[in-house]
Amino acid sequence: MAYYGTVLCSTSICVQPVSPSRRAELHFMIYPDPDSEKAIMGSVVYCIHHKEGCKWTGELRKLKAHLNTCKHDAVPCTNKCGAQIPRVLMEDHLKYTCPQRRARCEFCGKDFTGHTLENHTGSCGFEPVYCENKCGMKVQRRHLTQHKAAECSKRLVPCRYCSKEFVADTLQVHHTKCGRFPVTCPNHCDASILAREDLDLHLKDQCPILGICCPFKEAGCRFKGNRFALEKHVDDNTKQHLMLMCTVVTKQQHQIVSLKSALSRLSLNYSGTLIWKITDYTSKLNDAKTKEGMELVSPPFYTSQYGYKLQASVFLNGNGAGESSHISAYIKILPGEYDALLRWPFSHSVSFTLFDQSNVPEKACNIVESFMPDPTWKNFQRPSKEPDSLGFGFPRFVSHEMLKKRHFLKDDTMFIRVKVDPSKIVAV
């Protein structure tokens, strides 16, 4: 037990531990005479553990006796583990922290000292632990290896049909799609079990009782039978099948003509303006010089969706007054679908433009010619069902010499625009 000296303060007497080696000296210093000793030992002091919560106060002479019972005073562990433990904490120490305590594992029920229990905890085979595969199951540690190998829903298992590995709880879903999964023929033929991926081929080419349609089904043949009957049917009905195919071909020809007509209508120009690209000018000019009256004609175009149908033409080597020296350009009226609703004679102004393909657009100098139709001319009356070969335009539209002076030809190509004045389009 430690010895305690007293320190006099202004408000109370504080008590502090004093080592035995200093006791004789302190006794002489503190108690110079019996009267002083009696007065000091009768002084009121606090317990040395008052900061830990002890409320005891009393005469200094009674302090030692109090410390023998003070719950905050440290005493040796009763299990002799060597620790000094306050009496108030002794019960918890003996129960939970003392290395010499006796404790029972809550999982396996075996007794251990406190030190060995700490080593045992975390390795007890009977302790329930969560599966490392995160399947959500808790199993005893001793059974964990077996669980992961044979029971865990998240373990990898091979498909017994295709040998690929899958998570165990997805294997049934895989079986519904596995190409090697065994299935039977839906026609209940004598074939053995088939792999799912082979079923289509079996039904198409191998099943002996499958009702197969005649290969001329799309032509109208309604025969359906097994493979052997089908072969005989095809051999015995060659003439009938040929007649069916001829009917199909005739029908398809009519459809092709109808589609071509519809496509042609979709590609028609209804803007009243034609941009005509004439390529291979040199070759075509040479042909025109050797073939008298050689005329190039443009794609037809309309002045509007329900307007007049027109077509432009050029003679690269000229004709009439421009023969051999000019390009001649003309416009002609073709029979159209809505001629019965239009006003005749044709009376809209028409202009021809030969584009200068200069690299600097601001310096381009196009050649433009235009005219107003003469209503007395036959060219502008309503055309008959047979296209009129007559046209109206400019025999001397542009001279061959002029073509060489600017950029009217570029890459052996020229562009001619034929435009009908939209302000004078008259349609019902």
TrEMBL record:
This is TNF receptor-associated factor 4. Residues 271-420 form the MATH domain. Residues 65-118, 120-172, 173-231 form the TRAF-type domain. It is found in: Cytoplasm. GO terms for cellular component: cytoplasm. One of its GO terms (molecular function) is ubiquitin protein ligase binding. A zinc finger (TRAF-type) spans 65-118, 120-172, 173-231. Keywords: Cytoplasm, Metal-binding, Repeat, Zinc, Zinc-finger. The lineage of its organism: Eukaryota, Metazoa, Ecdysozoa, Arthropoda, Hexapoda. Its main location: cytoplasm. InterPro entries: MATH/TRAF_dom, TNF_rcpt-assoc_TRAF_met, TRAF-like, TRAF1-6_MATH_dom, Znf_RING/FYVE/PHD, Znf_TRAF. PROSITE patterns: MATH (PS50144), ZF_TRAF (PS50145). One of its GO terms (biological process) is signal transduction.
